[in-house]
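Re: [help] complex structure
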Amino acid sequence: MIPAPIVAGLHVCHGVDIDMQRHEITLTRAFHELTSPIHPKYAKPFRVFAEIYGPIGRGVLTVMLMPLNQERVVYAFKHTIEFKDRFSPIYFRLDLRDFRFPRIGEYEIMLWVDWDIVAQRRFVVREGVLS
Amino acid sequence: MNANGQPSTPHGFEPTLLDVGGPDSPPFFVWLGSDEESFRPVSTEDILFLLSFNVIGPTSRAAAIAELERRGVSPPESPRA
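Output below.
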């Protein structure tokens, strides 16, 4: 898409409540560090939220989760998005569940629209049962 | 309108909600603990799509290419991004 979409904040958190009537967004427990089970156990579910603005038109939104050493992809998601106008955002809420972290350490979530990286967010995973 | 009679949001502000990741919109790739096994359930189209990004890393790339070859599909020559 030209110009490339803009993300007004990419957050990882435990809860996202969106009131579409009042245009209010409540993020609960946004984090930079996540305590989670490690492979072979499943990760504790968490959420990704982004507010995305773009030019009028359609594109493909791709989300990837990777260890920071970029040895492998852990999770990849894609979805077609459509911007109705330049000033109305897309509230993107992704529920990440049913996947495993290969190891403890730093991870990165990357958002792409078509071939443009529109947002990146790093966080640290530490091993534990629950946080 | 807010309590002061002012518009509470800019004129024409019409956000769209994209609420995904549940059973109706699952990810197209999930690491299963083995890189080889992880690409088995992924469609050929989605493997090619993933390979078009240069950020996926050598371990995933090698497993994706091996799965394409197992299906008799030629891997792309180079990633786009």
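Helices of chain B lie at 35-39, 44-51, 58-70.
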